Amino acid sequence: MMTEPEPPRLGEVLDVLDAAYPPAYTEPWDAVGLVCGDREQPVRRALLAVDPVDSVVDEAIEVGADLLWVHHPLLLRPVHAVSADSAKGRVLQRLIRAQIALVTAHTNADAAPGGSNDALADLIGLTHTRPLQPGVEQRLSLVCYVPEAHLEQVLDAAAGAGAGTIGEYRRCGWSTTGTGTYEAGEQTQPMIGRPGERTATGEARLEMVLPAGRAEQVAQAVRAVHPYEEPALHLYGHHPAPAGWGIGRVGTLPEPLTLHQLAQHLAGQLPPTAQGVRVSGPADAQVTRVALCSGSGDSLFEAARASGAEVYITADLRHHPASEAREHRRDGLPYLVDLSHWASEWPLLTRAAQLLRPLLGADAVTVSSRCSDPWTFQIPSPGR
């Protein structure tokens, strides 16, 4: 009698997601990764969404999901309670009661090759793309001395906190062995040796690279599993950011389009929203070179101008920044296309689903059908 194969554990699913959207690419202010759930729990079905809101939790429960993977963090700012009295607490309580794990990939999925910006660029059909704002984050080297028997657990802890990612390679580290010496003080409790005596013991020297913004998290993770009372940790040096990493994209259309045609294409390919697609520029203007940033992108106007793009596609454009951007040059370039924030990041879900289907099965991964854009309808101003 044939037995059903064991479903993958949550930890295995996280390994696939972290390989595609490495935590090392996360901005220092961001909060990504496992929010609730057990790495040992089985995952039979996953739901992918942009926002962790009540309607999406409803859907996760309806489809029988064990995992809800979202782009936007539920707990981005520090919290002091997760009671059901608050909206965020209510979402978290519902997920825990339903035994649904919550995982977030935010700025790491924005910056990574193949992430949200590449997904939007592919939907438009851009070719010869590159990051609009290449990653310039300083990368440090961690050096740690650890008993050889504990090397793997320290390496795993550092990698889980964001160390050891080099391009498409994960859990990268270098180690060698030698002899560590110390004399423990009278008030210490050394793992090896006794207080007041000189001790020599075999140790491994572990070295891994990490983003400067993850230094505190990596150090905390290493100290949490290191067997010594006072681990010897050193952070030094810097390395260039990996190729292809960065925010936004700039590329070329296969053939010129009018601004109106480009807007129509976006409206037809993205899910419908009350906002639709807003455009600033002449409808019949021809465009070939396109800059874009999924999500809020008015901080990248200067990069869009410097790229030579004739149009800049993003979301959440405000009146004054948009007006100043158009007035900056007499010719009004780049023209602006303003999308719904939710819709601009929705193409990422299809990409992430493609990553998970080989592991979970084609029918076990669902892209959310719930629109979590906050706007529900719009009334055009009447003509005069």
Task: Explain how this protein is built.
The chain is α/β, with parallel strands linked by helices. The protein has 3 domains: 10-110, 3-Layer(aba) Sandwich (Udp-n-acetylmuramoylalanyl-d-glutamate--2,6- Diaminopimelate Ligase, Chain: A, domain 1); 125-132 and 246-340, Udp-n-acetylmuramoylalanyl-d-glutamate--2,6- Diaminopimelate Ligase, Chain: A, domain 1; 139-239, Alpha-Beta Plaits. The chain is built from 12 helices and 15 strands. The strands form 3 sheets. It has a 6-stranded mixed sheet with strand order 5-10-12-13-14-11. A 5-stranded mixed sheet has the order 1-4-3-2-15, sandwiched between helices. The chain has a 4-stranded antiparallel sheet with strand order 7-8-6-9, with helices on one face. β12, α9 and β13 form a beta-alpha-beta unit. α6 packs antiparallel against α7 (215-225).
Layout: helices, strands, pairs:
Elements: H1 10-20, E1 33-36, E2 46-49, H2 54-63, E3 67-70, H3 87-97, E4 101-104, H4 107-111, H5 116-124, E5 127-134, E6 139-146, H6 151-160, E7 174-183, E8 198-211, H7 215-225, E9 232-239, E10 246-258, H8 259-269, E11 278-280, E12 286-296, H9 301-306, E13 311-315, H10 319-327, E14 335-339, H11 341-345, H12 347-360, E15 365-367
